[in-house]
Amino acid sequence: MRISLAYLLGLGCSVALLVPAAATEAPATPASSSARTVTLPLAPLPAGRAGGVVSRGIGARGTTGYSLLGVSWDDPTATLDGSVEVRTHPVARGGRSQPWSDWRALSSDSEDRPDQDAAELRGPRARGATAPLWVGPSDGVEVRVTGDRQLPAGLRVELVDPGDAPAAAAPDAPSAEPPADAAANSRVLPAVAHQAPRPGIVTRGGWGADESLRDPGFVYTGDVKVVFVHHTDTGNDYSCSDSPKVIRSIYQYHVVSNGWRDIGYNFLVDRCGTIFEGRAGGVSRPVLGAHTLGFNTDSTGVAALGTYQSAAPPQAQVDGIAKIAAWKLGLTGRDARGSATLTSASSGSRYPEGTAHTFAAISGHRDAFNTDCPGDDLFSRLSDIRNWAAHLQGR
Length: 395
What we know:
The chain is of the alpha+beta class. The protein contains seven helices and 15 strands. The chain folds into two domains: 5-161, no CATH class; 183-392, 3-Layer(aba) Sandwich (Lysozyme-like), CATH 3.40.80.10.
């Protein structure tokens, strides 16, 4: 492998560690997809601290190109009780090497996932995983995972290249719904008062989803009673023109790395307020998602593309969340400022399995699980989102 002098100088003391890694593509993405995932196993690291801390990782090394990464492990029900940090090397720009990034933490929480008894969490491809992180075009990585107790088996870093699918189409008229081939799903939603206008939604085809990746068929629940607002926690270093790439990467990560049937969120909204269709099955239908452990049934998950723990979400993004929430709840006449009772499907949530709890019709993820999601700054805007959504419903 030839490495330019500028590249070496940009890497500083990590130069000696930049060697080709023993990477595998696991599982292989179908040839029709422009996205791909490369995995690197994490090996034991020298003891960095006293006190019996265990650690695994990889030293700084060159990689194939990627833009999003995360760390996964074999058992999808296992908890990673420790810290996960990554450092990445951006690709050269204008022929000039870029410095390595600072160390960045990955969230090891696993609440953004299917419910405990969901088939996709128990499937043969299912794995546990951190939240993914969008880092932009990169060609090097360093990882360290530390904990005070046993770490999950099969730790590896997942490097996702979103590929170069066409740029997203403009938000369009209602997207095509799947054929209603089952009696339970053939009903037509009644006309109700206070239906909000349908916002423009970029379909899966519009953001370049490879439909051969996901499982065939769709799973539906009862009417949507609650909209859970999330942030993807993938970082804010993206332009709106890159939103389709970020979403394709999350899709690839959820399906290929986590082994889920499809992307977990029902809808995603970027910083410019563009709304994207998430999990397949029909935007007007109550599609079962994998976004709020314990409360995926009779709800929908709307994810703000970005990280909003200490950064204010743009007003356009807040408005986009209000628009999709108002429309989705309004399909069955539900008041965006109202409330609804859901029953927990997992004791891993805030409420024991079988417990009924009343949520605001537009709630934050942290209302159902002990998590920071959707971040303090976005959570503080939920009241505004409810009020604007109710206004859109004509209330």
